[in-house]
Automatic annotation (TrEMBL):
<keyword id="KW-0997">Cell inner membrane</keyword>
<feature type="transmembrane region" description="Helical">
    <location>
        <begin position="57"/>
        <end position="76"/>
    </location>
</feature>
<dbReference type="InterPro" id="IPR051800">
    <property type="entry name" value="PqiA-PqiB_transport"/>
</dbReference>
<keyword id="KW-0812">Transmembrane</keyword>
<dbReference type="InterPro" id="IPR007498">
    <property type="entry name" value="PqiA-like"/>
</dbReference>
<keyword id="KW-1133">Transmembrane helix</keyword>
<keyword id="KW-0472">Membrane</keyword>
<keyword id="KW-1003">Cell membrane</keyword>
<feature type="transmembrane region" description="Helical">
    <location>
        <begin position="103"/>
        <end position="130"/>
    </location>
</feature>
<dbReference type="Pfam" id="PF04403">
    <property type="entry name" value="PqiA"/>
</dbReference>
<feature type="transmembrane region" description="Helical">
    <location>
        <begin position="177"/>
        <end position="195"/>
    </location>
</feature>
<dbReference type="GO" id="GO:0005886">
    <property type="term" value="C:plasma membrane"/>
</dbReference>
<protein>
    <submittedName>
        <fullName>Paraquat-inducible protein A</fullName>
    </submittedName>
</protein>
<feature type="transmembrane region" description="Helical">
    <location>
        <begin position="151"/>
        <end position="171"/>
    </location>
</feature>
Length: 218
């Protein structure tokens, strides 16, 4: 949004829609309202994608469904010459803590439990705020959206660790580490959550805002 300076005072912010402009969601190029396709990347131009909330909730529900077995089933299966062991995400973090690696255990808990739950909550708050209104200022909601988008790329840390361990620790009869069924469920949950966040049209955050709230161009 841009504010109009009139007689030394800043008037109500002017949205891109009010200025007769529409931005491309893929390359961020701005075009006059009514342009069908982006001349830079060829994407379809729409001022607001109202159907995006349906996709957001569909991917969100799929992510929650996959996140449940990701915490109930073993993430890692360890087999040695004399015993075999299966660990869930929480059990693995507890074992790391008891074996003198509290820092690693905290990282696992943050990356595998705290961040996914926070992403589910943040996406739900953003989607509900667009549909039902929110007391949270639009600027803060947009910051939340940017954070969710940014941390999405780091959500696969557990899957990467399992893949690395599985490839390195393969000593045939002596010892081996293999991924458990939770690793696939966790990976799917992360993918679905990322798709849910990417489906959200963040421009809708700035609809129906108060005149004194300012933010970026829609």
């Amino acid at each position: 949004m841009v504010g109009m300076e009139v007689a030394g005072r800043t008037s109500a912010p002017l949205t891109a829609r009010q200025a007769g402009l529409v931005g491309c969601q893929r390359c961020a190029r701005v075009w006059p309202m009514g342009t069908v396709r982006c001349g830079r990347c060829g994407s379809r131009l729409v001022s607001r994608d109202r159907n995006s909330l349906q996709r957001v909730w569909a991917w969100w529900i799929a992510g929650v469904i996959c996140y449940i077995p990701a915490n109930l089933y073993p993430m890692l299966r360890t087999r040695t010459l004399f015993q075999s062991q299966e660990d869930t995400i929480i059990a693995g973090a507890i074992e790391l803590f008891t074996h003198g690696a509290p820092f690693v255990a905290i990282i696992v808990l943050i990356a595998s439990v705290a961040i996914p739950l926070a992403k589910f909550a943040a996406i739900a708050v953003l989607a509900l705020g667009v549909r039902q209104g929110s007391r949270i200022p639009a600027g803060r909601r947009h910051i939340v959206y940017e954070i969710v988008e940014y941390i999405g790329r780091w959500s696969m840390i557990d899957v990467f660790v399992v893949a690395i361990l599985s490839s390195l620790v393969q000593l045939n009869v002596v010892a081996s580490i293999n991924p458990g069924p939770a690793s696939l469920a966790f990976a799917l949950s992360v993918i679905f959550t990322m798709l849910s966040a990417q489906s959200f049209d963040s421009r809708m955050i700035w609809d129906h805002i108060e005149p004194d709230q300012k933010g970026p161009a829609a």
